[in-house]
Write a structure and sequence with these properties.
Helices cover 40% and strands 19% of the residues. The chain has 220 residues and is an alpha+beta fold. It has a single domain, classed as NADH Oxidase.
């Protein structure tokens, strides 16, 4: 598993190509982070049914509302719920860096984002290995498109994340520890296209700092 430095720099808001000194500093931050913190994840596979209201996981009695889920899961017969976190260790590490050096803290935060995504990639790879001959959709998360953040408690409850990962959902449906991700991955019998990607589908399209700067996160 590798941390994508280019992605980390983008998360940190560093222009491309980065100054050489900044590139080296980011490499040092990434090396320290990956040596100290390991992403942890959990996923479960569920049967999926399609209803007039949208895709539904009958075992959980969980409806996945909105256009995003309907499009992503249109050809799927199963769906996996996934959670990944860097845990409280990363949050403590970030707070310590913030107290000493805010510029380095920005790089650390960017590395954290890239590192938790690397964990999600690894979890997807594990899922794919368990399902030979099946095909996965891109993962998509509550808060992306019109998939509501209010699904977070149900996803974390289904995965028992508080016990297994130390990950819980706040009253405002945010994840704690902060560098954590929940996602849904559809499973189908034929290759799946990326159906809903890009700024116009994202719930942060009006507030995203990358977009304000004329950039994107690359999910297009």
């Amino acid at each position: 598993m590798e941390l994508n430095l280019e992605e980390a720099l983008r998360y940190a808001g560093v222009p491309s190509p980065p100054p050489e000194a900044l590139q080296r500093e980011m490499e040092d931050v990434a090396a320290g982070l990956t040596a100290a913190v390991t992403p942890r994840w959990r996923w479960r596979l569920f049967e999926l049914e399609h209803t007039p209201e949208g895709p539904r996981l009958p075992e959980l009695e969980l409806l996945l509302p909105g256009r995003t889920a309907a499009l992503m899961l249109k050809e799927c017969t199963q769906a996996a719920l996934l959670a990944c976190t860097l845990g409280a260790v990363f949050d403590a590490r970030l707070r310590a860096v913030q107290a000493r050096d805010m510029a380095k803290a920005v790089l650390t935060d960017g590395c954290g984002s890239a590192w938790v995504e690397a964990g999600c990639d690894e979890a997807e790879g594990e899922l794919s290995e368990r399902l030979p001959g099946r095909f996965l959709t891109d993962r998509f998360s509550p808060g992306y498109g019109d998939l509501p953040l209010s699904l977070q408690p149900a996803i974390c409850g289904a995965l028992d994340t508080q016990r297994t990962l130390g990950l819980y959902v706040t009253d405002s449906h945010l994840l704690n520890p902060g560098k954590s991700v929940t996602a849904i991955v559809g499973v189908a019998d034929r290759p799946q296209m990326a159906r809903v990607r890009g700024c116009r589908y994202c719930s942060m399209n009006q507030t995203c700092q990358l977009r304000k700067g004329g950039k994107s996160c690359g999910l297009s």
